[in-house]
């Protein structure tokens, strides 16, 4: 993509997310930290907004708990750890920012799999998506493995299943049933592109209808 166009789409996608009722109302979420080398949709503005500490009351924004990914090994093992500042991130061997396992005081960061409260939302990356909710990742299986485990956890605890929302450049969106599926693949509920939200699952369609009466 032309860098200028890509930057415009980055800004548009993040603005759509920040204005979305389902984002404003969520209390906990897991979100990826974008890496320009991987050509992922930028999430820096969304993360900054979540982590911004303001003393003033902002009734349009619910205080959110943010978890971001840390890759543990090459066997599709990834954790989502809580951060409260961008200073909590360090560069890994591939120059990708991820949370340090312990905070400045030496305490282990909270892992979303052991949290007392559920998250409402996952913001997901990918190489391509189709309009039936299929997501093409990078082949490591990290996200599909993690999303499956979290769905099982939510079911065991009688929590509402979180919404899986993928961020996508316009060029990455394909027609329905184009991307091949494997039994381990997890479908996304909705896509956000520079043109707006594309609700896919019944949960996302209901959410979309309620915010667009």
From TrEMBL:
Keywords carried by this UniProt record: ATP-binding, Nucleotide-binding
List of residues binding substrate: 33, 40
EC number: 6.3.3.2
Top EC class of this enzyme: ligase
Cellular component, GO, one term: mitochondrion
Record GO terms (molecular function): 5-formyltetrahydrofolate cyclo-ligase activity; ATP binding
Gene3D superfamilies: NagB/RpiA/CoA transferase-like (3.40.50.10420)
Catalytic activity, as annotated: (6S)-5-formyl-5,6,7,8-tetrahydrofolate + ATP = (6R)-5,10-methenyltetrahydrofolate + ADP + phosphate
Protein name: 5-formyltetrahydrofolate cyclo-ligase
Phylogenetic placement of the source organism: Eukaryota, Viridiplantae, Streptophyta, Embryophyta, Tracheophyta
């Amino acid at each position: 993509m032309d860098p200028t166009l890509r930057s415009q789409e980055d800004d548009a996608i993040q603005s759509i997310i920040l204005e979305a009722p389902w984002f404003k109302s969520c209390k906990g979420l897991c979100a990826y930290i974008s890496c320009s080398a991987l050509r992922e949709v930028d999430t820096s503005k969304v993360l900054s907004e979540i982590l911004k500490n303001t003393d003033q009351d902002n009734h349009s924004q619910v205080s959110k708990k943010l978890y971001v990914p840390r890759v543990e090994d090459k066997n599709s093992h990834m954790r989502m750890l809580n951060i409260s500042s961008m200073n909590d991130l360090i560069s890994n061997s591939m120059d990708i920012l991820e949370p340090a396992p312990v905070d400045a005081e030496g305490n282990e960061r909270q892992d979303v799999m052991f949290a007392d409260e559920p998250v409402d939302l996952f913001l997901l990356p990918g190489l391509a998506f189709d309009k039936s909710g299929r997501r093409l990742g990078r082949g490591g299986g990290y996200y599909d493995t993690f999303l499956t485990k979290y769905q099982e956890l939510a079911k065991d605890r009688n929590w509402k299943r979180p919404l899986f929302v993928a961020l996508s450049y316009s060029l990455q969106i394909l027609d329905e049933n184009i991307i091949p599926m494997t039994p381990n693949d997890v479908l996304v509920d909705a896509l956000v592109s520079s043109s707006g939200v594309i609700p896919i699952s019944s949960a996302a369609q209901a959410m979309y209808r309620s915010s667009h009466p």
